[in-house]
Design brief:
323 residues, alpha+beta, Arc Repressor Mutant, subunit A, 4 domains, four-stranded antiparallel beta sheet, 11 helices, 23% strand, elongated
Length: 323
């Protein structure tokens, strides 16, 4: 590689960092004069890289966004991360992204140095993926892009929506966040008709374009992901229960994730766990993880199961010796 080409690659690598570079600083890094830096910047521009120059005391050079995507330089860790990410994306839940991911992956793996190809291959060889659920919902890429844009621009959105029962409605919201959970994507938004926070499955949405006017942002819950996961779980539960737990709420909260249930404090040594699951067996496992005494009054299926479980555990252990 010629000295000029090597220097251009080094300059490009520096400019890809998210900061402005002063001319003298680049000259010192590259070991050349300021005039050479200006000439190299122009060479990069001729190759299609949008190098932006700013003036003033804090001015300098930075790589901007152009009309076309120029080639990018990746260091070793970045190349491995992108390769692994693309392989993961080929089995994702976003419709249409698999083919594009495969094309990008083929291009990247073709030029990976042998040392990096070995790292990626080792990771793939010794990783056992859980078979994906091909029956799960898929999300249209364009719908995701529309939702991300209205969240960014704070624009109201109207969309056709099918609820859990399949009933069709038209909703009007102020959109705030997209949340991905497994193969499902959710929109977290303020429902204008219900005057409250709501969560919507993206695969059931059909946005109406154009979008509405801009809105003033509201204060979000402290943990949007926990808020969404708790409500998504509750909507899908077949069995629900409220359990009085004889332990501090802080202790129970550390043992139960927000996706499992909501903990409500009663006093310093007592709280209520509002939880649920598709099966009573799963509920029994959740309650066993509490490592604390608790009172259960329903549903009847859960009470009956815990009684059977109690008898089974009693039979599985030797009797207490007489003293």
């Amino acid at each position: 590689m010629s000295e000029t080409s090597a220097r251009l690659l080094r300059l490009l690598s520096l400019l890809q960092l998210p900061r402005d570079w002063a001319g003298p600083e680049l000259a010192q890094r590259l070991g050349v004069s300021g005039r050479t830096v200006r000439a190299d910047v122009q060479r990069l521009r001729d190759l299609g890289y949008p190098v932006v120059a700013t003036r003033g005391n804090v001015g300098g050079y930075r790589l901007g966004a152009g009309a076309n995507l120029p080639p990018l330089l990746l260091d070793d860790d970045e190349a491995v991360a992108v390769t692994v990410g693309l392989r993961t994306a080929t089995g994702g839940a976003i419709a249409g992204i698999e083919e594009a991911s495969l094309r990008a992956l083929a291009k990247l793996e073709q030029v990976l140095p042998s040392r990096l190809r070995r790292r990626v291959s080792t990771l793939q060889t010794y990783t056992v993926p859980v078979p994906r659920d091909d029956t799960g919902p898929t999300v249209d890429t364009e719908v995701l892009m529309v939702l991300a844009a209205v969240c960014r621009d704070r624009e109201r959105l109207r969309f056709d929506y099918a609820d859990n029962s399949g009933a069709a409605t038209v909703r009007a919201v102020e959109p705030y966040r997209l949340v991905s959970w497994g193969r499902r994507w959710y929109l977290f938004a303020w429902d204008l008709d219900r005057d409250d926070w709501r969560t919507f499955r993206v695969d059931r949405m059909r946005p109406r374009i154009p979008t509405g006017p801009r809105f003033a942002p509201r204060e979000l819950p402290d943990d949007v992901a926990a808020y969404v996961s708790s409500r998504v779980s509750a909507a899908a539960w077949r069995y629900r229960t409220r359990v009085t737990v004889h332990a501090p709420a802080e202790v129970v909260g550390e043992r139960i994730s927000p996706a499992v249930g909501v903990v409500e404090r009663i006093d310093e040594q007592t709280c209520v766990l509002d939880t649920g699951a598709d099966t009573v067996e799963t509920l029994g496992a959740y309650l066993g993880l509490l490592d604390a005494d608790f009172d259960v009054t329903g549903p009847p299926e859960l009470v009956a199961y815990l009684r059977r479980l109690t008898a089974r555990y009693a039979r599985s252990t030797p009797p207490t010796p007489d003293r």
